Amino acid sequence: MFDGALLENAYSLDLANGREQAAYRRNLRRVVDGLEVRFANRPGVSWNTPPGGLCVSVTVHDVPDSPSEVSCPKLAAPASGSGSVK
Q: Where are the alpha helices (DSSP H) in 1-86?
């Protein structure tokens, strides 16, 4: 199937994968837009999108000490006190 797609598109990966590339770009834009809406004004939260990237790197600079310090329970530090965010 992959070889056939390349043959049909003059051996161009860009032509053969254009639809998939568009979907990745659209979804990446949705993620970045969502981060901007939710976290643009929150100190300690940053992100970057590598050029041509398929991923977004998000950094949370401060780990809250208790679940009451965050608006989303999933961001709370584990009860073990290890300080890692899952």
A: 2-8, 13-16, 18-39
Phi, psi of 58 (to 5 degrees): -110, 135
Residue 80, token pair as written in the block: 């073990």
Residue 82 to residues 48, 59, 69, 77, 79: CA-CA distances in angstroms? 26, 17, 17, 8, 8
Task: Give the mean model confidence (pLDDT) for residues 21-50.
Answer: 89
Greatest extent of the chain over all pairs of C-alpha atoms, in Å: 57
- pLDDT band of residue 34 (cuts 50, 70, 90) is very high
At 60 the three-state DSSP class reads strand
Task: Find out whether 11 and 26 touch, Cβ atoms under 8 Å.
Answer: no
More confident residue, 43 or 83: 43
